[in-house]
Amino acid sequence: MSAVDHSNVNIIPPPKEVEREPLVTNNRSLGWISDQVCKIMEDKMPAWWWPTFIVSLMLMSVMFVCIAYLISTGVGTWGLNQPVAWAWDITNFVFWIGIGHAGTLISAILFLLRQKWRTSINRAAEAMTIFAVMCAGIFPVIHTGRVWYAAWWLPPIPNMYDIWPQFRSPLLWDVFAVSTYFTVSLLFWYTGLVPDLATMRDRCKTKVRKFLYGLFALGWTGSNRHWSNYEKAYLILAGLSTPLVLSVHSIVSFDFAVSQLPGWHTTIFPPYFVAGAIFSGFGMVLTLMIPLRTLCNLEDLITVRHVELMCKVITATGSMVGYAYIMEFFIALYGGNPYEQYAFQNRAFGPYWWAYLAMFSCNVISPQLFWFRAIRRNMIAVFFISIVVNIGMWFERFVIIVTSLHRDYLPSNWGYFSPTWVDIWTFVGSFGLFMTLFLLFLRYLPVIAISEVKGVTPQADPHHPLGGAKAGHH
Amino acid sequence: MAAKKKAASKKAATRKKAAAKKSAAKKSAGAASLTAQSSVREPANDVDLYGVMGVYDTPADAMHAAEKVRDAGYRRWDVHTPFPVHGMDDAMGMKPSKVGYFSFAGGATGYTVGMTMIYWMNAVDYQIVIGGKPMFSPFFAFPVSYECTILLAAFGTLLGMAFLNRLPRLHHPLLANKTFRAGATHDKFIVVIETTDPRYSETDTVDLLKSTGCKKIEFVEE
Prior knowledge:
heterodimer; A: 474 residues; 16 helices; 0% strand; globular; disordered C terminus; B: 222 residues; alpha+beta; 8 helices; 5 strands
């Protein structure tokens, strides 16, 4: 049999009402996809890259200076003190770890649900996960003050009295959850990268690049016998990451929910935290993707449809979060515990009313704007709302942690937390670390999963009417 | 399917044959000549050959070619594609991947290690009463054991995949070939039949690839 000529195949278009916008617009060819994605790494550095990178690098240095000051002087340089012994440190930790969750949702859960649109955003979202978890990991380590003892608190190593860490504490569960999450996310990300690193290896010109991409591509040849094992491994990793991501933020919420404190001791915390994490993570994905698709000319790969779909996830998870906020109040009222009731009344109308208002308006009201198609398709509006969502989610963690702590059972134990400049600049600097890593990723690794995007184009399917055709133009 | 099983048992025999074949596979010029439809690139004289490859432009063409190569009874051959082509496993007559066994072994180890570690540390080696809670309970030990399960299952999956694929590999004859490098990870679909295959013959194998409508056939040096 000779190769079938598909040039005059007559394809009957589907009826208008079931037609979907394609995942790769402008009918691009397979080769175009690798060329366009690799161009970001192969062309000269674009003009915007250096200034952004230098600012990020400076912010990152500020964070390290603040950390050095904190460690050399003591945790007194921060604003936290009794009764508010956890403040921005743990707020930032939960904030960053939550951001990571969208990456795993996109790479694992949407993969299991066969959502093909994930392919053009999963690589960058997974990178975001890894960098966000790195930022998150810094805060619980430095908040202990004497970080040089961290080795005895984190992994199970007996201390000088031969005592082991005790596994009845959710804080230790958290250590295992977060470190497993980081490791598995990294493995999953790397697995996805291998075929694309091979693409880079086969097309790069310089010796250094050829060596490094070649080394990390592990000798990948695109063999179908390899793909078969690879796809199975990828599916299993997705299956493992799904319960993992749900467990990680559940365990983070146990840090609070397992305690006896009014405002923390609630059973709604695990699902509420997970929904909030995905909500904030998608906010961050949009904040990164909207400038990225324009600056790197990836509009045909990260299409308006992709943005719209992410907006819908934000509305769904934002509504779940809103439901949790209201349900917490209802349970406090219905439960009849006066301390619980006071904690919630104080949360919304006490001295931190402004934080609660910021949280509620950013997280519950702003995502409802995405019910309107015109707003979902307006990139500037989406970009703005995605930032609002992240501001709101930071305030959510601040509200949960600080308002629950600042008024203890006896009024003699009441206080008010205000941050110091070290608090503020450590947090701001963590964005510098995040952006520095992300910009380096953008420059040296394929920002879009090339092989996966090729796989969802119509011409990739051998059984599609267009399947055999070498369709698309360059 | 059955052919593959046989291939495993006959591995040793195949290898011996392969060694003999290699000397035979030294190219004698003019064995396969250029035809009108397909261009066959001749290798230089006196080089060891790794195999012969046929380059296709579309996944459908490569898949139909794979079906033919499978039906012709070849064993040491492969299809190289820039992305996983669905349906290719059947077209090549491959069995389902065995990666899952490695994941299970990793996961089972992780859970056992987690539970045993917590039991030994908190209930055997150094007991401390905390809040009147029991020294050991599978409930409080679960979150950590669960994380250990996932961690080791993930490592099992990845290392299992690497083992089954015999990766990492620092050198591969195909990666030294320019046509292969320009296409296999970009936009070409390449069928490669190795010279170590018991059915390999310089003329018949090339004719087989030609019969699949392949436009570009090339010999790959070892």
